[in-house]
Amino acid sequence: MENKSTFKRFRDALQQGIYCIINPFVRLLIKIGVTPNVVTTIGLLGNIAAAAVFVAAAMKATPGTDYQYKLVTVAGALIIAFSLFDMLDGQVARLGNMSSRFGALYDSVLDRYCELFTLGAIAYYLITVGQGVGALITFLAMIGSVMVSYVRARAEGLDIECKVGFMQRPERVVVTSVGALATGITGMFNPDAGAMIILIVAMAIIAVFANITAFARLIHCKKELG
């Protein structure tokens, strides 16, 4: 329990630090009339662009010789850049007094689209370059990512607060983007280093811990329902 509370405190402190950095930009967006839903939409489009880069890398790659590591690096950078809009839209809503129930729903739905686009594109990339096991692991990561959010949504429909577990969307975004960036950069500087394993390990981390988080939330709900 102490480890969990320590992690939560660290996560909250990191989040507040990021807010301090982005709040001036948030106020600028509010001043020029940008709404939270517009910010959320831009985040989705950016993640679709990242997915498209992965698909382009898959189409240009030659299994065993050319994995298009430069494009993988670009995709990772796009994921982490546009996933920041996850934090921006919430802050725009809060600081601009534009929070709404539909906005919360819209944000949640588009978050799922973002993850499915990026993870689906990674799975396609891996299977195209001959990493079938990695593609299967990524598919399991997709299942875990969806189920973490689904269990929480169903729980809240039963008036149960369900935020337990540590492989939530911010953690999944970090693991995905860092995994892609590390794979691309390592591969560019040392093509013989077997950099692809980095991306597969990142997907494995999400596959394992996202599904554990989903089941932890299910157990939590069972206890709450008595």
The secondary structure category is mainly alpha
Main β-sheet, in a few words?
none
What do the pLDDT scores average to? 88
- Give the termini separation: 21 Å
Number of strands: 0
Helix share bin: over 70%
Q: What share of residues are in beta strands? A: under 5%
Radius of gyration: 18 Å
Outline: globular
Uncertain residue segments:
none
Multimer state: single chain
Number of helices: 8
SSE string? HHHHHHHH
Brief description of this entry?
By secondary structure, this protein is mainly α. The protein contains eight helices and no strands. The two termini are 21 Å apart.
Protein model, in words:
With 226 residues, the chain is an all-alpha fold. The chain is built from eight helices and no strands. The model has no long low-confidence stretch (mean pLDDT 88).
What is this structure's SSE topology?
Elements: H1 2-31, H2 36-60, H3 69-83, H4 85-95, H5 101-128, H6 132-157, H7 169-189, H8 196-225
Helix pairs in contact: 1-4, 2-3, 2-4, 2-5, 3-7, 5-6, 6-8, 7-8
Structural key phrases:
8 helices; mainly alpha; single chain; 226 residues
